[in-house]
């Protein structure tokens, strides 16, 4: 998010594009054949790009993920994201530029989201600075977050609902992960990350309900007892998923962070896939990569 709260960006690199209808229709047998770098900007002139690409577009090494014309590269102490995408309907246009994420430190821990380790959350750098230069799409700086999720089963196979939130606090950043698993168990985790990368569990404040999203996705987040979280900026709003800037109170401090709610019961519905295909085009081919 920008320091003044007027803009935001999210970038997700997928090998096995979990929210792609093309990946689901394929039976999810070949993750590398359904990869993408999803870029979404929020604020004035916001755009959304998520092109499902074939394996010819994928190129990886220990420091880089390239998918078609866009890439993420680890350079020394920072992640450099080069973006060159075409946004999808209703606002079609080129998204081109660079986003640089500089962590204050890298953490050393990960969290199993299921007991058997089929889903793993790795919060690499919950405290980061970002510099964004997307040309006429926006130039700004702010505070950011860098993490990863890994899985060996479909999300909707193991979860029915989850929320996630990251909020700056006086001691660093508080991250809350809550999920309802299909086996009847639940996840309720609070993580405190300090600027030096030290990570510790914290007792999460109570769950507090929020207004439903535009598509009526149920939402809740963590907040001190007696307080009421509220959305201060809508970001991504889909029939099964909502991302927004949310203001809540943690440890007596009002804070604004990014919040996500994911309804995987809705995502299981086959009626949703044709709708997603309008926003997520498929491009299977790409010129062969020639390394020097």
Our measurement of the CA-to-CA distance between the termini, rounded to an integer number of angstroms, reads 37 Å
Helix content: under 10%
Strand residues, percent:
over 45%
- Total beta strand runs: 22
Low-confidence segments, given as residue ranges, are: none
Backbone shape: globular
Largest beta sheet, briefly? 8 strands, antiparallel
Find the structural class using helix and strand composition: mainly beta
Average residue-wise pLDDT? 94
Provide a count of the helices. Answer: 4
- The rounded Rg comes to 18 Å
One letter per element, helices H and strands E, the order comes to EHEEEEEEEEEEEHEEEEEEEEEHHE
Quaternary state of the chains = single chain
Structure, explained:
By secondary structure, this protein is mainly β. It contains 4 helices and 22 strands. The protein has helices at 21-25, 155-158, 264-268, 272-279, and strands at 8-15, 35-42, 48-49, 52-53, 58-61, 64-67, 70-75, 78-86, 94-103, 111-112, 119-133, 139-151, 159-169, 172-181, 186-193, 199-201, 207-210, 219-222, 230-237, 241-250, 253-263, 282-283. Strands 5, 6, 7, 8, 9, 10, 11 and 12 form an 8-stranded antiparallel beta sheet that branches. It is globular and about 55 Å long.
């Amino acid at each position: 998010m920008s320091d003044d709260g007027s803009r935001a960006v999210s970038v997700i690199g997928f090998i096995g594009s979990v929210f792609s209808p093309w990946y689901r229709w394929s039976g999810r047998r070949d993750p590398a054949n359904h990869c993408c770098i999803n870029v979404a900007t929020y604020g004035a002139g916001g755009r959304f790009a998520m092109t499902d690409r074939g394996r010819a577009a994928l190129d990886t090494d220990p420091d880089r993920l390239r998918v078609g014309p866009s890439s993420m590269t680890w350079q020394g102490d920072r992640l450099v994201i080069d973006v060159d995408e075409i946004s999808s309907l209703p606002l079609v246009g080129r998204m081109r530029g660079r986003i640089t994420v500089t962590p204050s430190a890298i953490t050393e821990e990960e969290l199993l989201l299921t007991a058997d380790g089929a889903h793993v959350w790795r919060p690499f750098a919950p405290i980061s600075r970002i510099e964004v230069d997307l040309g006429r799409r926006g130039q700004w700086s702010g505070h950011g977050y860098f993490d990863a999720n890994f899985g060996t089963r479909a999300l909707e196979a193991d979860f029915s609902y989850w929320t996630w939130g990251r909020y700056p606090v006086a001691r660093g950043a508080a991250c809350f992960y809550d999920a309802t698993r299909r086996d009847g168990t639940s996840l309720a985790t609070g993580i405190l990350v300090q600027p030096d990368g030290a990570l510790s569990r914290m007792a999460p404040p109570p769950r507090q309900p929020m207004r439903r999203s535009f598509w009526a996705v149920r939402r809740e987040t963590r907040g001190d007892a007696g307080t009421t979280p509220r959305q201060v900026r809508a970001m991504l709003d889909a029939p099964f998923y909502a991302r927004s800037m949310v203001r809540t109170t943690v440890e007596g401090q009002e804070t604004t962070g990014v919040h996500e709610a994911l309804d995987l019961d809705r995502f299981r519905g086959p009626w949703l896939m044709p709708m997603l295909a309008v926003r997520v085009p498929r491009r299977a081919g790409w010129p062969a990569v020639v390394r020097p």
